[in-house]
Amino acid sequence: MKALALSTMYAQQDRFAHGGDFARFAADAGYDAIEISHSTPEEKLRQVLEARSLPVTSVHQPAPWVRHHDGRGNSHCNLASTDPDERRAAVDYARASIDWAGRIGAASVVVHLGQVTDLPGMLPEELQLRRLIDSGLANEARMAGLREAAIATRQQDAGPHLAAARASLLDLVRAAEPWGIALGLENRYHFHEIPLAHEYDEILDGLVPGQAGYWHDTGHAEVLHRLGFVDRHAWFAANARRVIGAHIHDVTGIGDHRAPGNGDVDWPYIVAGLGHLPRYTLEINQHEPEQGVRNVRAFLAGVGLA
Q1: What are 247's strand-pairing partners?
Q2: Tens digit of pLDDT for each residue in 267-285?
Q3: Which positions ≥6 away from 32 have C-beta within 8 Å?
Q4: pTM recorded for the entire structure
Q5: Kind of pairing, strands 250-252 and 255-258?
Q6: What is the spatial distance between Cα 87 and Cα 90, in angstroms, rounded to a whole number?
Q7: Which residues of 51-69 are buried (b: 16+ CB within 10 A; e: fewer)?
Q8: Which end of the chain is more exposed for a tag (fewer CB within 10 A), N or C?
Q9: Which of 18, 15, 114, 28 is nearest to 6 (CA)?
Q10: Is the separation of the CB atoms in 264 and 250 below 8 Å?
């Protein structure tokens, strides 16, 4: 039977203001472990641990959440920045996540490796694409032009940011090695974020899965497919041998982090790509109905994942 972890993403609601209440809920709902999400402040992280309800098997960088000196949450600091101070701050926050994971005894740290450009938010063309789709205008002729413009912008600017991302990753691998922690580089939700499917070859060159590998997010892959940027199958085609972990959730339209079964993700290719893993993390948002969170194991068994 597969081991299932529940992310503290679901704990962002009033009834789980105390992390111990969330930990006890996860155990009662049939989960085997917890992942600490990057939205989790230190106090809540400590409360989850002190509850001693379930083990924490992974930490999502840059947990715990803190406010950067400029007012941003630390999750907005860019590991792929070409600005040395920005990249250094992002590396320091990620190292803190690794240290927490090591002290907790977690085997993995999930990493958001940064983005092309340091500008806040997504590329303006992607924002327009999302607005068109959300408005029921996915067949508009201008969709293709917006997509092509976003692709051209990313290709033009990617080189230095990919190099910075690789440098940050090597810094983090060195920090994780004494703990025996593997870094899972997650496929991302926005097109300008790093890495795309074909970029893992460059970024992971010379590293083995025990150091760093591919962490598949089902929702992110599906959304980028629906936006027309990356075919959903490309991630496994390029990185099947590198898969070390996964975030499982469903998608409705271009909204992700739904409970599995509360959306229309294509599950067979996911089963083929992830079925060999011994465990999965359910990354379900705080707005999803509780019954969907409790029904996860039965749903995954029904599609062949558990």
Answers
A1: 217, 281
A2: 999 999 999 999 999 999 9
A3: 3, 4, 5, 54, 55, 279
A4: 0.97
A5: antiparallel
A6: 5
A7: bebbebbbbbbbbbbeebe
A8: N
A9: 28
A10: yes
CA 14 – CA 179 distance, rounded (Å)? 34
Query: Other CB atoms closer than 10 Å to residue 206's CB: what's the count?
Result: 7
Q: What is the three-class DSSP state of 295?
A: coil
- The pLDDT of residue 148 is 97
Which homologous superfamily is 3-118+161-303 in? Divalent-metal-dependent TIM barrel enzymes (3.20.20.150)
> Is the Cβ–Cβ distance between 236 and 269 less than 8 Å?
yes
Angle among Cα 200, 8, 190 to the nearest 5 degrees reads 35
pLDDT band at 306 (very low <50, low <70, confident <90, very high): confident
**8 Å CB contact between 32 and 4:** yes
Q: What's at 42, amino acid-wise? A: E
> Which DSSP letter does residue 107 get?
S
- Mean pLDDT score, 24-35: 98
Helix-strand-coil percent breakdown of the chain, rounded to 5?
Answer: 50, 15, 35
DSSP letter at 73 equals B
CA 254 to chain CA centroid, Å, is 16
What number of residues does the chain have? 306
pLDDT at 119 over 90: no
Separation CA 293–CA 46 (nearest Å): 23
What is the average pLDDT score of the chain?
97
